[in-house]
């Protein structure tokens, strides 16, 4: 998030962008990069998505023309392989399979789709295997959700904040390694410092 924010700050500031275009370096001391803006809050406002937004979209998507087009495209793309179709159509789980299967069968009957062997002759064993796999994945997802402490309207915000902190920690570790290896120049615009030394 910090890196993305710095890139945005450089590209959105005319002077910083001109400097970067001309020299390939940035002025780490510039006001645009030193501001106290809460970048996490800024990006969340820019791309504000809530659990309710996703649920609303799922309701609109199911049984829509868009979903039907996606199901047909997946059927053709994966030659009737229901494992791949169920993995690639948005907003579906194994409870949707009878509905998805009925959509495909209707399109085959009307001549809109070809009859692929993988679909019309799929064994019950393969269907049950798919169902068991998906149920297992759902249990694992629920366990992970509980471990992350998610549950409610602010799920996405909590997850974004957690991932942001993880990335910040990883970046700090990486910068600390660079600093230990190359000295203080690595952390504070090594290229710029090197350029200044060459001029003097």
Automatic annotation (TrEMBL):
The keyword Coiled coil is annotated on this UniProt entry: yes
InterPro entries: HTH_DNAJC9, J_domain-containing_protein
PANTHER family: DNAJ HOMOLOG SUBFAMILY C MEMBER 9
A Pfam match: HTH_DNAJC9
One GO CC term, this protein: cytoplasm
Source domain of life: Eukaryota
UniProt name for this protein: DNJC9 protein
This protein's UniProt keywords: Coiled coil
Residue ranges that the Swiss-Prot or TrEMBL entry lists as coiled coil: 47-74
Keyword match Coiled coil: yes
Organism this protein belongs to: Campylorhamphus procurvoides
Domain DNAJC9 HTH: 61-127
GO molecular function, one term: heat shock protein binding
């Amino acid at each position: 998030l910090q890196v993305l924010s710095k890139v945005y700050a450089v590209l959105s500031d005319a002077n910083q962008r001109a400097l970067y275009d001309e020299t390939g370096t940035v002025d780490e001391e510039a006001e645009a990069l030193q501001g106290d803006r809460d970048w996490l809050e800024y990006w969340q406002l820019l791309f504000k998505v809530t659990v309710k937004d996703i649920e609303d979209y799922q309701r609109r998507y199911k049984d829509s023309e868009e979903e039907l087009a996606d199901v047909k495209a997946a059927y053709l793309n994966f030659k009737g392989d229901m494992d791949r179709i169920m993995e690639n159509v948005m907003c579906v789980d194994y409870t949707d399979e009878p509905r998805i299967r009925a959509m495909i069968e209707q399109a085959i009957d009307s001549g809109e789709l070809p009859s692929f062997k993988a679909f019309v002759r799929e064994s019950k064993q393969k269907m049950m295997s798919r169902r068991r796999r998906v149920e297992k994945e759902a249990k694992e997802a629920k366990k992970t959700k509980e471990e992350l402490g998610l549950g409610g309207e602010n799920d996405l915000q909590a997850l974004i904040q957690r991932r942001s902190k993880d990335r910040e920690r990883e970046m700090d570790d990486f910068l600390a390694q660079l600093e230990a290896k190359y000295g203080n120049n690595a952390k504070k615009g090594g290229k710029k410092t090197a350029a200044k030394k060459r001029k003097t």
